[in-house]
Amino acid sequence: MARRPSRCYRFCKNKPYPKSRFCRGVPDPKI
């Protein structure tokens, strides 16, 4: 996956969740 949405990256950085799994699993700021 070469595409990396800035939203997912930003949310991932804010939360202590894994960037790869969290980003690929839930790119929504709901969880």
UniProtKB/TrEMBL annotation:
InterPro entries: Ribosomal_uL16_euk_arch, Ribosomal_uL16_sf. One of its GO terms (molecular function) is structural constituent of ribosome. SUPFAM superfamilies: Ribosomal protein L16p/L10e (SSF54686). Keywords: Ribonucleoprotein, Ribosomal protein. It comes from the Eukaryota. One of its GO terms (biological process) is translation. The keyword Ribonucleoprotein applies. The keyword Ribonucleoprotein applies. GO terms for cellular component: ribosome. PANTHER family: 60S RIBOSOMAL PROTEIN L10. This is 60S ribosomal protein L10, putative. It comes from Leishmania donovani. The lineage of its organism: Eukaryota, Discoba, Euglenozoa, Kinetoplastea, Metakinetoplastina.
